[in-house]
């Protein structure tokens, strides 16, 4: 199983993107996939907050607050995610050391990134959605994903654990268009917590995700009490469509 995730958020200048994407797909991602235990890689272009706001009901409408610490890198245009057997797959070498050891040509490409933020997550739990039965790409991350990354007061973490298991992830397990939902905990990076939603398409996510409270309106107060106490990373939650992906 793919229980470890290496996630990188970043921005790119418009100039040089074509060359960067070719290098990423043809050189960098295959090199990462050669590491023992790495199972797949997927690269996403994020939907801007302005574009999300133009939908009938944006999937990120429940984000109460974001960190105002300017030292936290704030890249949000692209998300690169690798899945591995566990988090230790990405520990020898760690991502910073792996990137530093690239040839000059590779480091030149990485230098195009700005606002780069990295986390390594362990999967604490997952549910499978109805769309999994028709999904043909196995473990590979879905065509559309949303990843929220955040911190909270430790005093509400037990309640949050219960809410995700009993409320949010239970709803996603029955939601049309949902492939998988994963609750993640960080072993490296600013955010301690993450939630990763996988949908078969952006259209399905925009249509069905806003209905997540409809079947249990009596629990909306619980949801609001959790959400208002989360401090999200800059740009979170990030909604993205897959540009390209590969797996072993």
Structure overview:
- The structure is a single chain.
- The protein is α+β, with helices and mostly antiparallel strands and 248 residues long.
- The chain has a single domain (4-247), classed as Alpha-Beta Plaits, CATH 3.30.70.100.
- Helix content is 27%, strand content 33%.
- The chain is built from seven helices and ten strands.
- Strands 1-4-2-10-6-8-7-5 form an eight-stranded antiparallel β-barrel.
- Strand 7 (178-188) and strand 8 (193-199) form a beta hairpin.
- The chain starts with a strand and ends with a strand.
Summary, kept brief:
With 248 residues, the chain is of the alpha+beta class.
Descriptive key words:
7 helices, alpha+beta, eight-stranded antiparallel β-barrel, 27% helix, Alpha-Beta Plaits, 248 residues
CATH class call = Alpha Beta
CA gyration radius, whole angstroms: 18 Å
Instruction: Give the number of helices.
Output: 7
Return the string of H and E elements: EHEHEEHHEEHEEHHEE
Which spans have pLDDT < 50 for at least 5 consecutive residues? 56-61
Report the span from N to C terminus.
Answer: 13 Å
Write the layout of secondary structure elements.
Elements (H helix, E strand, L loop, with lengths): L3 E8 L5 H17 L4 E9 L2 H5 L11 E2 L11 E7 L10 H6 L3 H7 L3 E15 L15 E9 L4 H16 L5 E11 L4 E7 L2 H7 L11 H8 L2 E3 L5 E10 L1
Parallel strand pairs: 3-9
Antiparallel strand pairs: 1-4, 1-5, 2-4, 2-10, 5-7, 6-8, 6-9, 6-10, 7-8
């Amino acid at each position: 199983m793919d229980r470890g995730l290496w996630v990188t958020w970043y921005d790119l200048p418009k100039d040089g993107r074509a060359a960067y994407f070719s290098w990423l797909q043809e050189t960098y991602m295959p090199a990462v996939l050669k590491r023992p235990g790495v199972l797949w890689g997927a690269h996403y272009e994020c939907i801007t907050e302005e574009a999300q706001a133009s939908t009938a009901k944006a999937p990120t409408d429940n984000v109460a607050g974001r960190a105002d610490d300017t030292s936290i890198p704030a890249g949000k245009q692209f998300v690169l995610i690798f899945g591995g057997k566990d988090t230790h797959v990405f520990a020898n070498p760690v991502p910073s050391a792996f990137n530093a050891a690239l040839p000059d040509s590779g480091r030149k490409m990485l230098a195009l990134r700005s606002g780069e933020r990295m986390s390594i997550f362990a999967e604490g739990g997952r549910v499978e959605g109805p769309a999994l039965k028709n999904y043909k790409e196995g473990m590979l991350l879905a065509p559309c994903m949303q990843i929220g990354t955040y911190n909270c007061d430790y005093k509400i973490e037990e309640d949050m654990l219960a809410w995700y298991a009993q409320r949010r992830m239970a709803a996603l397990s029955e939601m049309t268009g949902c492939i998988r939902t994963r609750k993640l905990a960080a072993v490296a990076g600013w955010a301690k917590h993450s939630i990763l939603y996988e949908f078969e398409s952006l259209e399905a996510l925009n249509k069905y995700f806003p209905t997540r409270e409809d079947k249990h309106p009596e629990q909306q107060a619980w949801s609001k009490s959790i959400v208002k106490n989360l401090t999200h990373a800059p740009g979170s939650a990030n909604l993205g469509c897959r540009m390209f992906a590969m797996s072993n």
